[in-house]
Write a structure and sequence with these properties.
One of its GO terms (molecular function) is proteasome binding. The chain has 344 residues and is of the alpha+beta class. Helix content is 34%, strand content 18%. The strands form four sheets. Strands 2-1-5-3-4 form a five-stranded mixed β-sheet, with helices on one face. A four-stranded mixed β-sheet has the order 6-7-10-9, sandwiched between helices.
């Protein structure tokens, strides 16, 4: 199991060390042990069933999960490689499912408290904010500093722009939780957000891959806008993208705490260079950074790629937008030609 001091193997054993949830774990095996033996021991010692196990092994073979392509791969061949185990224990899965069930359960109305009169209080707005919100916030308790993650989730819930968008679109989300970075990371992509069952649960990647910090707030907030759009539209079609961009604009506009709108309702928020982010591509309801065979390639939302080179983020996004316009026009022309050819 995990140890601060590196244990040593005997002549008839090998010691395999890997990383799980940011912690180093060392396990002893016989010299002839295979990848299947590793999976079985992890299930027994760490209580992570094979169905929850994923191994990121670098260099090759890369991402492996049971049933393995080569279950007889000797562990001795992996001793010099970096191994990351991605997977939650049975207890962690049960805890998450219990939180989802509790957050989704019908709520019994509590005792009615006498309201304190307030001259300028918009009580209709107060009631809507209580109804259209994230009803439960849940950090991952097994990651470092869950209290910081909770504060981050609270900041998102209480963001003036997010609250306004939730009321406008009548979004009521039972559970907002953080995503384990290791569970949705490969060589090619990093998932930043997930939406389960059209808004039953929204997961956001708050932390950096090494668990040692938190990602930029506005990037995560934009991810949340994307996932909220999935409450209405599943596929990434025109309906989805129109709603996604509408929510993003509404959040920026109504974020008066950060200067989105002045007292006179005059919009003056102008994104600076630091406010523009390389989004990469959205795949299957997930926000993916990177992609392609090179770290200098950006995959845009329509699936095309733009070479980053020495361009700034703003220039990369502009080029990606140009590529999307070209593809859209090409698709429209092809559709028009097909319709003309089929007409009698």
């Amino acid at each position: 199991m995990a140890s601060e001091d590196q244990p040593s193997a005997s002549g008839d054993e090998i010691l395999l060390t890997f990383t799980h949830h940011g912690n180093r774990v060392s396990l002893f095996f016989g010299k002839d042990a295979t990848l299947s033996d590793l999976s079985e021991k992890i299930a027994e010692d760490l209580q992570i069933p094979p169905s929850n196990q994923k191994f990121l092994i670098t260099p090759k073979p890369g991402l492996e999960k049971p049933p393995f392509k080569d279950p007889t791969l000797p562990l001795a061949d992996l001793l010099s490689r970096k191994i990351i185990l991605m997977g939650n224990t049975t207890a962690e899965i049960n805890s998450l499912n219990a939180s989802i069930a509790a957050a989704s359960a019908p709520r019994r109305p509590g005792p009615i408290k006498a309201a304190t009169p307030a001259r300028n209080r918009d009580w209709n707005k107060v009631q809507e904010e209580a109804q259209y919100t994230f009803h439960t916030l849940r950090p991952l308790p097994y990651l470092p500093n869950p209290d910081r993650s909770l504060k981050f989730l609270e900041r998102l819930r209480d963001d003036a722009g997010i609250k306004a968008a939730m009321r406008t679109h009548k979004f009521s989300v039972p559970l907002l939780t953080e995503m384990d970075p290791a569970m949705h990371t490969t060589h090619e992509s990093r998932t930043l957000g997930l939406n389960r069952n059209q808004g039953e649960v929204i997961e956001l990647r708050l932390r950096t891959d090494a668990y040692d910090g938190y990602r930029d707030y506005k990037t995560i907030r934009k991810t949340l806008c994307h996932e909220l759009a999935h409450n209405v539209w599943g596929p990434h079609d025109r309906n989805f993208w129109d709603l996604c961009k509408q929510i993003e604009k509404e959040v920026d506009r109504d974020d008066w705490k950060s200067g989105g709108r002045s007292v006179g309702n005059e919009e003056f928020y102008e994104p600076s260079e630091e406010d523009v982010y390389d989004h990469g591509g959205w795949t299957g309801g997930e926000f993916v950074l990177g992609g392609g065979s090179s770290s200098n390639t950006v995959i845009d939302s329509a699936g095309g790629s733009v070479s980053a080179g020495n361009l700034s983020r703003r220039e990369i996004l502009a080029r990606a937008a140009e590529e999307r316009v070209k593809r859209t026009k090409r698709a429209e022309d092809e559709s028009r030609d097909a319709g003309g050819n089929g007409a009698s």
